[in-house]
Automatic annotation (TrEMBL):
Residues 24-147 form the Histidine kinase/HSP90-like ATPase domain. One of its GO terms (molecular function) is ATP binding. This is ATP-binding protein. The keyword Mitochondrion does not apply. The keyword Nucleotide-binding applies. Transmembrane segments: none annotated. The lineage of its organism: Bacteria, Bacillati, Actinomycetota, Actinomycetes, Kitasatosporales. SUPFAM superfamilies: ATPase domain of HSP90 chaperone/DNA topoisomerase II/histidine kinase. InterPro entries: Anti-sigma-factor_SerPK (IPR050267), HATPase_C_sf (IPR036890), HATPase_dom (IPR003594). Keywords: ATP-binding, Kinase, Nucleotide-binding, Serine/threonine-protein kinase, Transferase.
Length: 158
């Protein structure tokens, strides 16, 4: 279900806009959800395609990491994950909910992330890019991992 607040092209979002999609916990499902979210964010900015700027790149990386983590670590046979975005004039909140409440995220310490392992660095990336992030239980046994980014206006760069 998508809820949107309509704004004039090029104007900042007035009020709050919501995006939600359910995706299978597979690499392809995470990829598809990320691209749908990027297109929605571009539409909220009055653009046909995602912008090539730092805030858009940050949002895309956070969405990619959180959806990929749900596909990799949150998979439960027969259950999907959910990606939800909440866009306000000040903040973008990204939430990914999966069915594995027993597997809570914990960033690998920086010293351990320098090793040859193929995973463990994603949450360090989330922690460094997001203004805030965390994890909450989701009834009846899943979890929601979230990240927030302050929005910068094109006019002021702040």
């Amino acid at each position: 279900m998508n809820q949107e607040t309509v704004t004039a092209s090029g104007e900042p979002t007035v009020g709050t806009a919501h995006f939600r999609t359910v995706f299978p916990t597979t690499a392809h499902g995470a990829h598809t959800a990320r691209h749908a979210a990027e297109r929605w964010l571009a539409a909220q900015q009055g653009r046909p395609e995602p912008a090539d700027d730092d805030s858009t790149a940050t949002a895309s990386l956070l969405i990619a990491e959180l959806t990929a983590n749900a596909a990799l670590h949150g998979r439960v046979r027969g259950r999907s994950a959910r990606l939800a975005l909440t866009l306000t004039p000040a903040t973008l909140r990204i939430e990914v909910t999966d069915a594995r409440g027993d597997r809570l995220p914990a960033p690998t310490p920086a010293a351990d992330a320098d090793g040859d392992g193929e995973s463990g660095r994603g949450l360090l990336l989330v922690a460094s890019l997001a203004d805030a992030w965390g994890c909450e239980p989701h009834h009846p046994g899943g979890k929601t991992v979230w990240a927030e980014c302050a929005r910068r206006t094109a006019r002021t760069g702040r």
